[in-house]
Amino acid sequence: TAYNSALKYQKADYFKIKDITLSYSLPKSWISKAFITNATIYGSLKNYFTFSAVGSYDSERGGSTSFPLAKQMVFGINVTF
């Protein structure tokens, strides 16, 4: 039965989009009335998309398929007065 585990190998190619960040600076004509110098809205996704033929496979987990990496979603606004 020691040879039985050799039959469980699979091709584990994957494609991962690790970080996506988008930001938008608001026009000065919108923010100047509120005495704001600069305002930027931003959003970021980390560890959100992994495409693999092996379900839930990600090599950054050390080959484990039991516990997924934490996905992170961040939104915010950066304002300068």
Summarize the structure.
This protein has 81 residues and is mainly beta.
The profile of the biggest β sheet is: 3 strands, antiparallel
Major sheet: order of its strands?
1-2-3
Order of helices and strands: EHEE
End-to-end separation in angstroms reads 70 Å
Mean pLDDT: 82
Outline type: rod-shaped
Beta strand count: 3
User: Radius of gyration, Cα only, in angstroms?
Assistant: 22 Å
Flag low-confidence runs.
none
> Helix segment count?
1
Helix content: under 10%
Strand residue content: 35-45%
Structural category is: mainly beta
Topology, please?
Elements lengths: L13 E12 L2 H4 L6 E15 L19 E9 L1
Antiparallel strand pairs: 1-2, 2-3
Overview of this protein structure:
This protein is mainly beta and 81 residues long. It contains 1 helix and 3 strands; from the N terminus they run βαββ. The protein has one helix spanning 28-31, and strands at residues 14-25, 38-52, 72-80. Strands 1-2-3 form a 3-stranded antiparallel beta sheet, with no helix packed on it. The longest helix is centred in the middle third of the chain and has 4 residues, at 28-31. It starts with 13 loop residues before the first strand and ends with a strand. The relative contact order is 0.28.
